[in-house]
Hints:
Blueprint: H1 3-31, E1 35-45, E2 53-57, E3 74-82, E4 91-100, H2 107-110, E5 111-120, E6 130-139, E7 144-152, E8 158-166, E9 174-185
Antiparallel strand pairs: 1-3, 1-9, 2-3, 3-4, 4-5, 5-6, 6-7, 7-8, 8-9
The site of one 2-acetamido-2-deoxy-beta-D-glucopyranose (NAG) has 2 residues, from loops.
Amino acid sequence: xxxxxxxxxxxxxxxxxxxxxxxxxxxxxxxxxxxxxxxxxxxxxxxxxxxxxxxxxxxxxxxxxxxxxxxxxxxxxxxxxxxxxxxxxxxxxxxxxxxxxxxxxxxxxxxxxxxxxxxxxxxxxxxxxxxxxxxxxxxxxxxxxxxxxxxxxxxxxxxxxxxxxxxxxxxxxxxxxxxxxxxxxx
Length: 186
Ligand SMILES: *[C@@H]1O[C@H](CO)[C@@H](O)[C@H](O)[C@H]1NC(C)=O
Ligand SMILES: *[C@@H]1O[C@H](CO)[C@@H](O)[C@H](O)[C@H]1NC(C)=O
Ligand SMILES: *[C@@H]1O[C@H](CO)[C@@H](O)[C@H](O)[C@H]1NC(C)=O
Ligand SMILES: *[C@@H]1O[C@H](CO)[C@@H](O)[C@H](O)[C@H]1NC(C)=O
Ligand SMILES: *[C@@H]1O[C@H](CO)[C@@H](O)[C@H](O)[C@H]1NC(C)=O
C-alpha cells in the first residue's frame, strides 16, 4: 500500500467508526412509528431499609407521609421500572430523578415539581435508551401530565407527554405509579 492510500485507508476507517457509532440510534429511529404509546410502572418504597425515595433536604417532614411535606423539601428517587403493577412484574429499568415541593399550598393539591429519566436496561428491548420527563405531580387537577421534552437512544427524536397515576390498593410503604407515555417521533 502506498503512503497516500494508507492515509486514505486510515481516514476511511475513522469515518467508518464514527458512522458505526452513530448508526444504532439512527437505524432504530428509522424503525419508529410516528406515534408511540408505552406503559410502564415505577415502584417506589417510601420507608424502611429498602427505600427508593429519600427526603434529601428540607423540613424533614414527609419521608413516610407525603402529606406532611413542606415547601422547599427535596426528594431524590431511584425507582425500579417494571412492566406491571405487581411487585414480581419484570424489571426493565429504573426511573431516577428529583422532586421539589415548590408550593405554598398543602402539598397533595399544591404540587411537587419533578424531573426524571426513565432509563431502560438490558432486560428491555430499549436497553440503554431513556425518556426524560419534567412537570408537576400532586397538583389539584388529575390526571397528572408531564412534559416529555425528548429521549435518547431508541427515543431520539421522540417527544410528547406522560400521564401518571397512582395504582390503587398498594399498601404502604410501597407506592406504584402507572406511566402512560404518548410520544411523537420524527
Ligand atoms: C430489602 O431487600 C432485601 C433484598 O432484596 C430483602 O431481602 C429484604 O427482605 C427487604 N426488606 C424489606 C423490609 O422489604
Ligand atoms: C400525615 O401528615 C398529615 C399532614 O401533616 C397529617 O394530617 C396526617 O395525620 C399524617 N398521617 C399519618 C398517617 O401520620
Ligand atoms: C417485593 O420484592 C422484593 C424482592 O423481590 C422484596 O424484597 C420485597 O419485600 C417485596 N415487596 C413487597 C411489598 O412484597
Ligand atoms: C445493553 O447495553 C449495554 C451497553 O450498551 C451493552 O453492553 C449490553 O450488551 C446490552 N445488552 C443487551 C442484552 O442488549
Ligand atoms: C381498591 O379497594 C377498594 C376498597 O377495598 C375497592 O372498592 C376497589 O375496588 C379496589 N380497587 C382495585 C382497583 O382493586
